[in-house]
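Page 47, continued from p. 46.
Same chain as before, 335 aa.
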Amino acid sequence: MSKKFNVAIAGATGAVGVEMIETLEKRNFPVNELRLLASARSAGKTLKYNGKDIVIEELTENSFKNIDFALFSAGGDISKQYARAVVDSGAIMIDNSSAFRMDDSVPLVVPEVNAEDAFKHKGIIANPNCSTIIMVVAVNPLHKAKKLKRLVASTYQATSGAGAKGMEELEIQTRQLLSGEAIEPKAFAHRIGFNLIPHIDVFQDNGYTKEELKMLNESRKIMHCPDLMVSCTCVRVPVMRAHSESLNMEFEEAITPEEVRAILQSAPGVKLVDNTAAREYPMPIDASGLYDILAGRIRQDCSRTDGKGIDMFISGDQLLKGAALNAVQIAELFV
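Result:
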């Protein structure tokens, strides 16, 4: 009989936590006991797993006894607060926050890219930023073939990136705008209904936001490419779910769109959607609910004459591959 594992989810009631529960179920992860953890105000409520009601427990230092994997999606402060308790209990913490991503002693893992790094853990494995995950799944196969030198990314990030409250705000504001009612932004700095906001996370002294710098620093760490040049502009758009990115890539060697398509056709976690004659290209509405990253609009960079530039558009489900699925895939490496 194959071994089964005890799994805890901290932040179980959030948008990513709910996706983690569903992903464990859909992928038939060998769960023995599932422990759902949240704040005191959610304790006593229930969430369904495999048709059964699981009672939510309050997250405490004692929540991790006999747990094998603790999946965290409750924010960086909570992750830092409970990391020692998780590690001391003998569990592996797979953390979805930014708390440990750039810690040299903590692996930052996307299984399609650097699965081997997961086995160097000391009790904690970090789940990268959602936009970074979506990007490196599509870019790393090309990097391995032709060595990526520079990347310029513009993101089109769905409201799901701000959690359930972000998606709810888009829904409410859309109704309010169509009804002529007044708008009061809460989840975002400005109105998101029929608007876009070039501001995700906190602005830094160099004019970039933390979100943009995460994509730079995390992609270097995941792809083992410390000299990679990356510049990002991250934009929140009025889309419910799934992030998209426009990528301009410069390689060390010449590369053609045909080569890119051939590489991505067999790349793990990527689905090629690149038939402009049939109006087929990646869109967030099609990426929503999918495990794979959609890649298309592949073309030679016409601003260069050396054949080393490629433009591409990608879409990926932020709640799945950008968060919950990636965390579960990391746990699966140990199964």
